[in-house]
Amino acid sequence: MANSNLPRRIIKETQRLLSEPAPGISASPSEDNMRYFNVMILGPTQSPYEGGVFKLELFLPEEYPMAAPKVRFLTKIYHPNIDKLGRICLDILKDKWSPALQIRTVLLSIQALLSAPNPDDPLSENIAKHWKSNEAEAVETAKEWTRLYASGA
Amino acid sequence: MDSEDDMHDANDAESLDDDFYSGETAMDSDDGDAADYEFIDNDSDDSDDLLSRRSQQNYTILNESDIHLRQEDDIMKIASILSISNVAAAILLRHYNWSVSKVNDEWFADEEKVRRVVGLLEDPRALPNVKELTCGICFEVYSSDSMRSAACGHPFCVTCWQGYISTSINDGPGCLMLRCPDPSCSAAVGQDMIVSMASHEDTEKYQRYFLRSFVEDNRKTKWCPAPGCDYAVDFIVGGGTFDVTCGCSYSFCWNCTEEAHRPVDCDTVSKWIMKNSAESENMNWILANSKPCPKCKRPIEKNQGCMHITCTPPCKFEFCWLCLGAWSDHGERTGGFYACNRYEAAKQEGVYDDTEKRREMAKNSLERYTHYYERWATNQSSRQKALADLQQMQSIHLEKLSDRQGQPESQLKFITEAWLQIVECRRVLKWTYAYGYYLPEREHGKRQFFEYLQGEAESGLERLHQCAEKELQTYLTGGPSKDFNEFRMKLAGLTSVTRNYFENLVRALENGLSDVDGHGGSSRTGGTRSLGAGSSKSRGSRSKGAARSSRATDDSAHWSCEYCTFANAKSATVCQMCQQRR
Ligand SMILES: [Zn+2]
Ligand SMILES: [Zn+2]
Ligand SMILES: [Zn+2]
Ligand SMILES: [Zn+2]
Ligand SMILES: [Zn+2]
Ligand SMILES: [Zn+2]
Ligand SMILES: [Zn+2]
Asked: What is the pTM of this model?
């Protein structure tokens, strides 16, 4: 089984994620691959995503923790730093990654990104433009999408 | 001719020829700026001369160990001035792009801020004083003596440090600015720590990045752009030119890193290079290195560097590679007068009718470009050929010559010098064609003067090239000759004369031919006279060219422009080609 020689760090991180989950975040490893996590993040209060439940997938590559985990939104979301494939523009997932960061810190950062979109460092050009030219309207669209795509769970 | 300047020009023209061909020393020295353009043999034939010239340049060639030494030097300098460790000094210098003065300034302006930005802690913290510690990366518990930390005291186990360091080194030069893995901490990880934990292979990579950074992140240094060359050039900006010659013998412009291009400036070079790539599809035919013999029409491949081509037997027709004209037309004196620099002069003699003229005009811009491009490219390949010849000379022929002529090789340096000079001259000459292309058509005085200087340069170089290439052959194949010393004198003399001439030429062109500027309108007419019929004595085909243009004026329906030979309709008062007044 591929999971038999899972690094101790991953086992510990997993245990802790399950035993003391961060508020508004759940992450559980897939049964057949302990490096693949099903993630759910609740839309932060006072954000356009409030009330939504967003599904993500998170994968720990072979080099983890020397390399960053790979994370992607599965739920459609209207956000300037997230593209339509669900990819996320977040520095700690790229050049600012440090092996001392963890799955928990990554997910918390993503949650924070939902509270504070950053249209100046966009991944989705159109949404960012919308955000900058008419924030109120963009926020409405984000709310609308949250109702449409993230309310089920 | 109405001013002293005109006299001046006329004198210049004649004395140039006389001096050059007779090999005598200069005429009256009170001739002011004129003396700048003469082939004066006032240099010693000392073969160390070239070397001493090079050593006073405003740049230094650095090999790998030089770079290393300088880097070490700067690090020690900073370490001692700031009273910090060498490792810390290296981190600072890297951060401020290896500028010793910048590090100094910033440090003494606000040490605290610099420390914060760079990640140098004032009070290094040791590992927490406990028996066991948990590694922040692998979450394993270790005894504290198997943990390591940067100056911040954040503990990680050796295995995790190794993984962290190795990942960073294999990610690229960012490893030179490595920080503590703790995301809330920006403490720098120094070279000592990295080297102590990296694999042998990774350490080598790291050292490579470290050395490269000293060249690439440093505003004063650049790598030599020649492929496969590992030298760097340290340049003192301000004063002097940008041309540098690397230890690998490649010459390039330090400013734009194109190949050396004096006397033209960087902007002209980039314009010219863009022009060439835009035109390159039209130009393919030019690059073909064979042309039909003008007499027997068999394709002839140019395999020698100079322009004097002799067709293979039985034809043996001697012609000029550039204009395909008979070589015998190229000069009155032996050695060959070289007159292929002039666009107009290369055209066939005869009066054109109007349609032909108009067609000419349409073709003119491409033709004009072609003219300059072909000569630029020809000099380029001549230069390549000369470089190859030089190498062969040094690796084979000098030894052979030393044998044949019973001369120690140390006495044959004049031959290497000659070839080095040929290579350099071909380069300069090549760029004069880009210069000529961009010299405005309407600046007649300048153009004439330019073409005159260029023509002289070409014929001078051609003589040197012939001497070094063909005359040398006799001594390579024959036995000891008592003429060899004479040959030495001749070649060394030609080398020196040519070097002076080209140096002056470069300076004159770099100054925008400002001598001509000052003469204003009068120098135009004066120039024409002095360069054409005025100095009949030795002007060969060029005086014919001038005579031609004035003769064509006789055609009653047209008047021929004195400057560009264009046949204008009688009614026109201004030349339609070049806007010159009738
Ligand atoms: Zn560890
Ligand atoms: Zn730290
Ligand atoms: Zn080089
Ligand atoms: Zn340049
Ligand atoms: Zn022939
Ligand atoms: Zn010719
Ligand atoms: Zn004209």
From this structure: 0.62
